[in-house]
Structures are given as structure tokens and as C-alpha cells.
Design goal:
alpha+beta; 273 residues; D-amino Acid Aminotransferase, Chain A, domain 2; 2 domains; single chain
């Protein structure tokens, strides 16, 4: 993890340090729980849901968070102010439990999708890989390295994970949805990370009468869908233009564009509360 990619200051157990000291002070202990939260206009987006998921991840490995939601919000606000950050991703890592636990909070600049990507979609391809515990947001460096290598080699935005049954589960850093007729299809909850954006999309579909099915998705069936999209903290709702060389999607599918607009409206409502 490079201190060169960070802003000027970061926190260790809520104490502020210059980012030049990150490599010296960071302990890459395993397991490490983490969350990535997006700031928009200086405000953390959907922070309560991220906190709930972090709580669940810590609980899954027998740990409890040593801070409240309001404390976390205050520290993020303080660190954002110290760094002059308004539109960045902030990352929280909680680890080193054998020594009482350590919390790291730092801003990690992210290459958000461009306007052209939202208009024309992004390229993806298959990667045979699984998360051992998909419901826990635990750092898996091996998976991250394999996905990053594939994306760099082929010029991809995301790697589509395929399990040992030959089923698509999720992206390496996102959730996946596909469109069949007038309905959304996504992998079952037990097979994927329960992404904050994913949960919002499920709720929006229910509120707006959009049929949605959670079902196993064989990788060799992706050509039967008319469209697909990535969901996540950084990409929001991002059209997929292709999966590998054989599967091509309609990036202007009406339902896809409707979901994009609904989710952007959800963000606006949250930030203007």
C-alpha cells in the first residue's frame, strides 16, 4: 500500500500522522476488516450502511468495533477537513486484534468512471476465483493481485468472478446485475458480498415494481441477457459493454438507464437530507 497514492494525512487509532509515515506505521496483519466509503461534496455517502456491514464483518471473525457510527463520522469529517478532501474514497482498515486492534483511516484517490464510460459502457472478462467468505469484507490480496493482473493485461474495468460450479458470482470489487426482458437478475445473496449499492438497487427495484430475481447465473448463459451493469461505491451503476470477446450488451437498454437514473436520484436525496 503506497503512501504516495494518499493525501497528506491519515489516522492510526484516530491520531493524525503525515502520509509519509504510512509504510512505517501500517501493519498488514491478517485478518483485516475494511470498508471503502465515498465522499461526495465532503460528506460520506450511505455511511450508516457501511458501518453496519463493517460491524457484521468484524463479528464474523469474533471481533467488535471499538467505535460508534457517530464517532466514525466525526473522524472522517476531521480527516477530510485536514486534507481538504471533498470527492474522494476514504478507506478504513481494522486489524492487529492480537494486540488490541488498530484502526487506520486514510484517503485513497480513486479513478472514478468517466462520462464516456457511463455512456458507452466498460469492458470485463472472466476470472476463475471465489471469495472464501463473501459476506465478510476481508482483505484478500491474492484475489486482488490476480484481478488487477487480468485487468491490466486486457485493458478491463472489472473482472467477473466465476466459481467452481461455472457460475458468475460478482466482480472483483463490485456486484453484478443482468437484464432479461423487463427484469433484473443477480446472483443469490449467499454467494456475494452484500454491497451497499447492491442493497440500494434491490430496494429501488421493489419500490418501483421492477421484477428482480436472485438466482445462480451460469457463465455460459451471459449471452442470453440483453444488458448488464456493475454496481459499487466508486462506479455507482455502470453499464457493461462486453464480457470477454463473445458477450456484447446494449448499453442503452431502457431498464438499465432507468436504474442508473433512480440510483443517482437516491444519492441526491441522501445528500440533501
Amino acid at each position: 500500500m503506497s503512501d504516495q497514492a494518499m493525501l497528506d494525512q491519515f489516522m492510526v487509532n484516530w491520531q493524525t500522522h503525515p502520509s509519509a509515515d504510512f509504510s512505517r506505521l501500517y501493519t498488514p496483519a491478517e485478518p483485516s476488516c475494511y470498508e471503502v466509503i465515498r465522499l461526495m461534496g465532503g460528506r460520506p455517502l450511505f455511511l450508516n450502511e457501511h458501518y453496519d456491514r463493517l460491524t457484521a464483518t468484524a463479528r464474523s471473525i469474533g471481533q467488535a468495533l471499538p467505535f460508534s457510527l457517530s464517532e466514525l463520522e466525526g473522524h472522517i469529517t476531521d480527516l477530510a477537513r485536514a486534507n481538504g478532501a471533498a470527492d474522494y474514497n476514504v478507506k478504513l482498515i481494522y486489524n492487529d486484534f492480537a494486540h488490541g486492534g488498530t484502526v487506520y483511516l486514510f484517503f485513497t484517490p480513486t479513478a472514478y468512471p468517466t462520462a464516456e464510460m457511463y455512456e458507452k459502457g466498460v469492458a470485463t472478462d472472466f476470472l476463475n476465483a471465489i471469495r472464501a467468505n463473501p459476506h465478510a469484507k476481508i482483505i484478500n490480496q491474492s484475489l486482488r493481485d490476480d484481478a488487477d493482473a487480468l485487468m491490466a493485461e486486457k485493458g478491463l474495468f472489472e473482472a467477473v468472478l466465476v466459481n467452481e460450479k461455472g457460475e458468475v458470482t460478482e466482480g472483483s470489487k463490485s456486484n453484478l446485475f443482468f437484464i432479461r426482458g423487463d427484469a433484473l437478475v443477480t446472483s443469490p445473496a449467499e454467494a456475494v458480498l452484500l454491497g451497499v449499492t447492491r442493497q440500494r438497487i434491490l430496494r429501488l427495484a421493489a419500490e418501483h415494481g421492477i421484477p428482480l430475481s436472485q438466482e445462480p447465473i451460469p457463465a455460459d448463459s451471459l449471452g442470453r441477457f440483453s444488458a448488464g451493469f456493475i454496481s459499487g461505491t466508486s462506479p455507482k451503476v455502470l453499464p457493461i459493454k462486453n464480457v470477454g470477446d463473445k458477450v456484447r450488451y446494449d448499453v442503452n437498454d431502457p431498464l438499465l438507464r432507468k436504474i442508473m437514473a433512480l440510483y443517482d436520484g437516491e444519492i441526491d436525496r441522501y445528500l440533501n437530507r
